[in-house]
Amino acid sequence: MLEEQFNRNTLKNRLIVTKKLHNFKMESGTRFAVHVDQFKEIVLQMETIGEPLDEFFL
């Protein structure tokens, strides 16, 4: 039930995930592999709500 709420393609969810992407940066002292995993999670969230990354975001 909780998963369904956050996977819905609502304006609020799109804004939250888009904001995560725009604010995403590598933190000092963080391993690169952790950074990549965090980025992949954001990409997956965008795909889940029906907003896959395209050239517009890159």
Which structural traits does this protein have?
58 residues, mainly alpha, 3 helices, 0% strand, elongated
Biggest sheet overview: none
Please state roughly what percent of the residues sit in beta strands, choosing from under 5%, 5-15%, 15-25%, 25-35%, 35-45% or over 45%: under 5%
How many helix segments? 3
Structural class: mainly alpha
How does the overall form come out from the CA principal axes?
Answer: elongated
Number of strands: 0
Number of domains in the coordinates?
1
The separation of the N and C termini measures 32 Å
Oligomer: single chain
How many whole angstroms does the radius of gyration measure?
A: 12 Å
N-to-C series of helices and strands: HHH
Average of the residue pLDDT scores: 82
**Poorly predicted runs:** none
Helix content: 55-70%
Characterization of the model:
There is one protein chain. The chain is mostly helical and 58 residues long. The protein has one domain. It is built from three helices and no strands. It is elongated and about 35 Å long. The mean pLDDT is 82. Helix 2 runs antiparallel to helix 3.
